[in-house]
Design a protein that fits this description.
This protein is mainly alpha-helical. Helices cover 39% and strands 10% of the residues. The protein has helices at residues 5-9, 16-32, 63-78, 88-92, 115-124; strands spanning 45-47, 84-86, 93-94, 97-101. The strands form 2 sheets. Strands 1-2 form a two-stranded parallel sheet. The longest helix is centred in the first third of the chain and has 17 residues, at 16-32. The two termini are 16 Å apart. The model has no long low-confidence stretch (mean pLDDT 91).
Length: 135
């Protein structure tokens, strides 16, 4: 599950707390599916929000948006939400400026990954978490 960056970049922008609350609700709903024994187990992997500094659309590229994005990512990394974390932020960010996408992963708008960026996101998944009897 990767949700929240658009909520931060549109006006009026969501607070970090609102996005975190939405993530909690979504994970609760997805986990509720586990109680239905007719369905296979569903593992919920939560992705960190990707960098958007320098984005040309909306309010995505602002310093305030980046502050809230980092707060949400800290929550995702440390809270134990979901069954695992996929760190898209670390996979795509510019090593010299963690608020923005690395040039090779930027589609050109500072917000959306390029084809190389989406390949890098796929590589960030730990595939063993997606297979086996627990999944």
């Amino acid at each position: 599950m990767l949700e929240g960056i658009n909520d931060l970049g549109i006006l009026p922008a969501a607070s970090a707390e609102e996005v975190i609350d939405g993530l909690r609700r979504a994970v609760r709903r997805l986990r509720a599916l586990r109680r239905d024994h007719r369905r296979p187990r569903l593992n919920v992997l939560v992705g960190t929000l990707t960098p958007s500094g320098g984005a040309v659309s909306g309010n995505h590229g602002s310093v305030e948006t980046d502050r809230r994005r980092r707060e949400i990512n800290r929550f995702i990394r440390t809270s134990g939400i979901g069954d695992g974390v996929v760190d898209f932020d670390r996979a795509l960010r510019d090593p010299a400026d963690h608020s923005g996408l690395a040039r090779r992963y930027d589609s050109g708008d500072g917000l959306h990954p390029s084809s190389a960026g989406y390949r890098r996101m796929a590589q960030a998944f730990e595939l063993p978490k997606l297979k086996g009897p627990a999944c």
